[in-house]
Amino acid sequence: MMSHWIIAPVVLPAMVAGLMVIAMRGDLLLQRVASVAAILALNAIAVALLWAATTHGPEAYFLGDWPAPFGIVLVLDRLSAMMVALLSALALVVVLYAIGSGWDRRGAHFHPLLQFLLMGIGGAFLTGDAFNLFVFFEVLLIASYGLMVHAGGGTRTRAGIQYVAFNLIGSSLFLFALALIYGVTGTLNMADLAAKLPTLPEGDFALIRVAAVMMILVFAIKGALVPLQFWLPGTYANAPGVVAAMFAVMTKVGAYAVLRFGTLVFPASLPATGDLLSTFLLPAGLVTLAVGAIGVLGASTLPRLAAFGGIASMGTAFVAIAAFTPQTTVAALYYILHSTLATAAMFLVADLVTRRRAHARLDEGAGPIAQSGLIASLYLAAAVAMAGMPPLSGFIGKLLILDAFRDQAPLIWTVILVSSFLMILGFARAGSTLFWKSAASDTPAPEHPPEGLAFIATLALVGGLVALTVLAGPISDWLASTANELHQPTGYIEANQLGQER
Fold first, then answer.
1. What is the pLDDT of residue 3?
2. How many domains is the chain partitioned into structurally?
3. Which of 15, 40, 109, 338 is buried most deeply by CB count within 10 Å?
């Protein structure tokens, strides 16, 4: 049992961020040491939480010892532990890349903002209360906006304003939905909602359906689902590469929330909502996948290529999530792990390339890229992973999804396969322009300072993709148990009820 350690992924980055702002302002070296040390500690805690969730099952932590639904509750289960571990691993890669590339020198508060972002995302994964999910959404929104405009610039600021505007709309919808749910049920604790919603009188069904639709729209904005994906290409393409890599896990908050609410609060068996989530999510996921693939094919810059690849990956994940069966959930979880690493790797590669060229456009005549052999290899690995080609984990993830839908309508297979082909063409076009056609120029390679730590960080992401591929069997078995726990949430509900009995 982990008891107080459950709150550590929220408290640790919050305390370190505050300490940096108060006592380390202006001392970049000290901030770097504190940031790396805190994230290493976060990784150790995440591994311990993952082990505890695997061996002991769901466990709730009641802040101030106030029972649910009156107090703030954090709940550790296999899904939340997995997402916290994914977050902490990516954060370590990002902070090492930021230090190795010097990106953290370009603004005064990179490391504190990164820590606040970790606090917000970690809290969103662990909270067992819908209102506190909203609170953590706002924390990560504020921190992500600060990181988005890191190092300034008019284009970056405009993209950041668009990003905030879209997410504020989502925040408003979220508040309206929470108000409706609380007005009908008198609680916002997710386990409490799971127990109360099935017993609602029929007269309250309409209000709950309206609240569920609002929730879907909120999570669609967070997960960049069509038609609410417009903020993502501009935001991610204009953000610093290292920040966009960190944002790769931020869209997964939307996918996580859909999984949590779709299996716990609004399951298909709930009379008030039925299969409402699937009705909305499946067509939206298919269209998102298609839009992302077309965007990859027509992208004019490498960061936009990576951004549209991220949209396509979210569409693929939501297609699997929308079915809400244990088998499709396993495929969705595996693909979420894969796509987070692959998208982050592509953004880091895009940053390495952009820093060695006069611009980020995918056109000819830009001259050769320094260290192009290593960067080309990293680009190839990231492109293969994002397009879902063998032998990396993207291929296995898409196979799992296709296998889960083998008895479904052929439309899903068609969209996934055609979109994969379009993405292969898009990544191949960009790669040939960057590493083949440009190499024909006689322009000498520009001088560039050593970036060994940045390359190591990028290689670590590729290593993670290889590990996902090699260990696909054991990981899938673990995810199968996770999916079963999600679709049979008795343990999650009982962990909350222990606090009520106290």
1. 73
2. 1
3. 338
